[in-house]
Design brief:
- By secondary structure, the chain is α/β, with parallel strands linked by helices.
- It is 45% helix and 17% strand.
- The protein has seven helices and five strands.
- The protein is globular and about 50 Å long.
């Protein structure tokens, strides 16, 4: 709701760091349409803002992206607030195409894992969260299916997309200090 967005904006503006992740209609960042944005500022809490779910998938109120963008832009461009993502280049490009430039990008957990161990087989967020945090996450195929029956995220009900997206930003936020510690010179 607009009131919940106002409350989230206050939390974002007071944060030291913000983890962000987008839900879209494609894995191709140049074709993807924004479906929702997930944000986290503290471990154990994630927020999902639905902006592009199909009408019959959004039983909860969706917010207009232009209103959301205007509300969150100051925090996501505040140079004192760090921004974190997993595979940040994808999310960054999708948001930039939607009119929001996130700045500064402070840490990418996928790159952090690769820098720590270039031979790592855990570059995907779900595997990385399992190995580093002992956290089992829902796989995307549970939401969108596979093969001929696969659908895009805009056809996933908001009630299902929200916990999935919130977990992504929560795990990313929790991974940042672990990976930073591992990357410090010893």
């Amino acid at each position: 709701t607009p009131e919940q967005l106002d409350s989230l904006v206050q939390e974002l503006n007071a944060a030291k760091g913000i983890s962000f992740d987008v839900e879209t209609t494609s894995t191709n960042q140049m074709e993807a349409r924004l479906v929702g944005l997930a944000l986290a500022t503290r471990p154990g809490h994630g927020y999902y803002i639905p902006v592009g779910h199909a009408e019959d998938m959004a039983t909860q109120l969706q917010l207009d992206w232009k209103i959301v963008r205007e509300a969150i832009q100051p925090a996501l461009q505040n140079p004192v607030i760090e921004k974190y993502a997993h595979n940040a280049k994808y999310d960054y490009v999708v948001l930039q195409r939607a009119g929001l430039v996130v700045h500064p990008l402070s840490f990418d957990t996928m790159l952090g894992e690769w820098l720590d161990d270039p031979a790592s087989r855990n570059l995907g967020l779900k595997n990385l969260a399992w190995v580093r945090l002992d956290a089992e996450m829902t796989e995307i195929k549970i939401l969108i299916g596979t093969g001929k029956k696969q659908k895009t995220m805009d056809f996933v009900p908001v009630e299902d997309a929200a916990p999935y997206a919130a977990a992504d930003v929560d795990m990313t936020l929790q991974l940042v200090p672990l990976l930073r510690t591992d990357l410090e010179p010893k």
